């Protein structure tokens, strides 16, 4: 009997709604599998908490989370709290504190109608972006000097350590080898002559240990073009924190939008909890109206199942998602349907129950 | 009688071919307009030069160029010369030395068949990206410490000065006001808490002087999604050096590829020469075969005409381009045609002659 102990942070805006449906799906699995159980502990952290308590999470919040197997997060951000405050003190803090240095973001087209691209099908758009998730452009290093004066200058330093760069690139080579796919590194060595030239060197160095893996290396500008014109080129992609951020939203655009885009923030060693989240924001404008699409949140639950060795269930969740996407009218408005957030979760649980 | 004194740097790979056709078009205009003339002075700089002479341009290259009105550049980069060397010593050096702080990149769909997006027409995709072009992530500031050791670290610092940030944002507001379009700033304040929070503040501050301009502000990840799903949202866009690099290649993907993407590196004060270039690379694999599409290079020539007050001719060039794009078989292979680089230039000059 396996129990997965999950800290739930519903967060802001549509976060609670979509996470609720993800939990519904996990409970439906639990009901079907006598060897698997989940326990859920909710944390009220987020921007509302900040506005009441003056902090995004408790002072010992990281300690409180440390004992869990996983964190299941909705969305963070709300008008009235500057984004860089809300995110650095919750989402980004968790990613960094728990060394969740791998961000796994699948870019897979589950139904051809979902892509805005002409003539592309699920065979053409089916890859995995592995985003560095602990340092790089998001190191948080920088300064503002001479504030308000004519000579004012803002400095933002990307910090690429050998350890941090090697481990993400190695993870990506392992994944490419394991799944027998090509590996593409996306960087920008022609302009960023310190960080990205270093990245490219590490990609080559580590690659010597993986002569069986076929590799490509693209500039980020060219890659963003190829995402649109030739998504077939990509199988496993490894890239920096910032480029991964940009490219995975672009990937989401190709596969049905943010309502379907999931992300796993992984500490591969299981030394700390890993975090699973839809990559969309808190969308305060549609919060509480049953309009939010819970499929991204459910997809990220399937990533959780995969990570804990329950790949069969992970696959089943994606199969049901594929089936549900055949009937757009049963989906939320962003996908052309009339269903509410809850309807989609109910139907999902129902279909799971019939498996 | 106006003469525009142009320094021509054909550069590497397909550069000379496409620039040759651009010059052909300018000469055809000269033949039709008794009040306008061009003089062309070629510089042999680039990677071949580097391999022979050990330098990308002459030591006093910047001085040699300083007296020209404009620089017309093909492409830089060739196998055997690391990109960060070739570019920092030629293209990026010119942009910086001549304070070409505005990079104008039109994203306009000239024919509906050219876009890979479903159901989008020229009305939907028609905007201008104004990219900061002199500092920011491309400041060239950084270091590599403890090289080769386990504790190695690469640092790359984005430098955003008040002067540099204000002037590009002000330029963009002026352009939005002049053309009565909305202005969208693209940044990433939620993660890059020094540089991009500063950018956002300056965007707001300068905006107070332009209450008549309708503004939007997007995160770069969201913006890259909207480029694909809702390009209608954009009219004038202002963004940082790196984000502009990425987003304009993405924009090129939406409008027919790099074979059609032009860029103007502008010093608005005319204190130094401005530079006009197709934004594609040197594509050494197809160089010398007549396969390269010269339309990006010709489009950038039309930007040059605009910049020197010859908007009528600039518009005429774009009209002819639109006409030519109606007949794909008369275009280069990247656009589905059978014509050579030269054929396209000849036809263009011919059509100009008939105007
Ligand atoms: C909310 C924001 C800080 C975050 C990021 O930039 O990483 C988000 O865009 C994401 O992709 O997870
Ligand atoms: C060649 C390279 C340095 C350049 C850039 O990154 O600016 C190019 O991609 C561009 O967009 O003009």
UniProtKB/TrEMBL annotation, chains A, B:
NCBIfam families: TTC (TIGR02089)
Keyword Ribonucleoprotein: no
Keyword Repressor: no
Listed EC numbers: 1.1.1.83
Matches recorded under InterPro entries: ICDH/IPMDH, IsoCit/isopropylmalate_DH_CS, IsoPropMal-DH-like_dom, TTC_DH
Residues in coiled coil: none
Group of enzyme by EC: oxidoreductase
Reaction(s) catalysed by this chain's protein: (R)-malate + NAD(+) = pyruvate + CO2 + NADH
Family statement drawn from the similarity comment of this UniProt entry: Belongs to the isocitrate and isopropylmalate dehydrogenases family.
Pfam families documented for this protein: Iso_dh
Cofactor section: Mg(2+); Mn(2+)
GO molecular function: tartrate dehydrogenase activity
Protein name: D-malate dehydrogenase (decarboxylating)
Isopropylmalate dehydrogenase-like domain sequence ranges: 5-348
Organism phylogeny: Bacteria, Bacillati, Bacillota, Bacilli, Bacillales
Keywords: Manganese, Metal-binding, NAD, Oxidoreductase
